[in-house]
Structure to design on (440 residues):
């Protein structure tokens, strides 16, 4: 089958690998030349991924049968809709269904309307004085958010990014006035406390199949310090749960995703593709922090390499609304993924620096390598201002997977930064203790 993957990051490299390993003939449409994808693909086009007409033109030209969209921006731009109108099957949501990610007000109102458990106290404002009253009512313990897409960097949270009500109000004002995230509105949410986790699921419009839970690390520096990033690394456990999570917590999160899918269907926005729930596990169960209309990055790299079912079959089952008819299996393995980013990433990244990657040694040491935002020139790899590449270790236990990952990371050198604490026992134990404390 001729499959087109849209997007050129490490998540898309993992999707492309799954497509090729499932027997697909791979084509790629990406804005940057991802060296890993380039090597896997029969053909590729370098262009703005949000240009729906260009994507369709390329897909028709290459006689593409199935398309998969990695990032959210092309979904928001209606690439799924345009491809479908052109007769191409797409295993990703339409623009209307993807609004669950691209408009946080829509997500919160949908949960409210259908009385879906797991939401938080929140309100949307266009008037900063009204926002101020609400922030004060919550005692300043809030998250201040733009409604639309900001590449994961637009949210500010009390205690992390500000300490006083005035600072929260100031940021709310800035979001409204500048229209950050594409809307002249701000979302104020109560701050919830707990441990964060990601639950991704395949969906066919009516049913979902949840994947192993993953924990991402959004903060730049060890011990969860520094600014928020796109994600510095992530891990999963062979049980499908996380070390601080019970089977009931997992089920509750899966039920929330299932209810969201049902609500979207009732709203005439049938959701087909991978859905991503970012949850905070609190004393009161999982609370929704955000819903994304795609695989997570890095979380795709934790789940796709251990998927034992043919990935293209799953994509077709999502499109054809037959998910309940196929058997989906993941290997009972733990995974650890660490991102390599340019020095200064998240603050003042050093682009254009060469990084040395010994692909052969990484393979020999049992790791998987996924390229992200790098340039390849004459066989050499150069950084951009975004994340460069990710290395994944897979083993029975998280400890072993972490060690494989670290062993492989020795073969990536020069002006780079890595959050080495991701997947380390010390940090995981801290998370378990934190959750025990929260649960009393
Ligand atoms: P987001 O861009 O929505 O993923 O938010 C970035 C980070 O802010 C999340 O990973 C959380 O750690 C934090 N955050 C967002 N919303 C809340 C909330 N309501 N309560 C506590 N933390 C939050
Ligand atoms: N890992 C965060 C995201 O994909 O949005």
């Amino acid at each position: 089958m001729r499959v087109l993957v849209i997007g050129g990051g490490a998540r898309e490299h993992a999707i492309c690998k799954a497509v090729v390993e499932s027997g697909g003939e791979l084509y790629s449409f990406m804005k940057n030349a991802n060296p890993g994808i380039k090597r896997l693909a029969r053909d590729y086009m370098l262009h703005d991924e949000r240009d729906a007409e260009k994507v369709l033109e390329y897909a028709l030209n290459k006689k593409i049968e199935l398309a998969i969209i990695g990032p959210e921006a092309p979904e928001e731009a209606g690439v799924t809709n345009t491809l479908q109108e052109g007769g191409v099957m797409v295993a990703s949501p339409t623009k209307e269904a993807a609004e669950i990610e691209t408009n946080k007000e829509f997500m919160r109102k949908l949960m409210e309307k259908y009385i879906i458990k797991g939401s938080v106290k929140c309100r949307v404002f266009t008037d900063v004085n009204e926002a101020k009253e609400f922030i004060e009512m919550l005692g300043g313990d809030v998250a201040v958010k733009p409604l639309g897409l900001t590449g994961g960097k637009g949210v500010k949270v009390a205690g992390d990014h500000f300490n006083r009500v005035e600072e929260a109000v100031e940021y709310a004002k800035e979001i409204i006035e500048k229209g950050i995230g594409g809307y002249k509105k701000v979302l104020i949410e109560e701050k919830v406390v707990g441990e964060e986790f990601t639950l991704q699921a395949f969906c066919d419009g009516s049913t979902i199949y949840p994947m192993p839970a993953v924990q991402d690390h959004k903060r730049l520096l060890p011990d969860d310090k520094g600014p928020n990033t796109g994600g510095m690394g992530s891990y999963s456990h062979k049980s499908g749960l996380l070390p601080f999570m019970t089977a009931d917590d997992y089920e509750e999160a899966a039920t929330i995703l299932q209810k969201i899918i049902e609500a979207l269907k009732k709203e005439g926005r049938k959701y087909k593709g991978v859905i991503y729930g970012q949850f905070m596990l609190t004393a009161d169960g999982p609370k929704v922090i955000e819903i994304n209309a795609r695989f997570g990055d890095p979380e795709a790299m934790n789940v796709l390499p251990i998927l034992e079912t043919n990935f293209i079959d799953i994509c077709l089952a999502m499109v054809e609304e037959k998910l309940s008819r196929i058997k989906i299996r993941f290997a009972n393995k733990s995974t650890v993924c660490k991102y390599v980013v340019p020095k200064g990433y998240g603050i003042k990244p050093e682009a254009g620096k060469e990084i040395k990657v010994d692909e052969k040694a990484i393979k020999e040491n049992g790791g998987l390598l996924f390229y992200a935002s790098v340039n390849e020139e004459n066989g050499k790899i150069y950084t951009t201002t975004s994340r460069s590449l990710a290395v994944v270790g897979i083993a029975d236990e998280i400890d072993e997977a972490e060690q494989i990952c670290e062993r492989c990371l020795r073969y990536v050198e020069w002006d780079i930064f890595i959050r080495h604490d991701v997947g380390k026992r010390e940090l995981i134990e801290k998370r378990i203790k934190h959750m025990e404390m929260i649960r009393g």
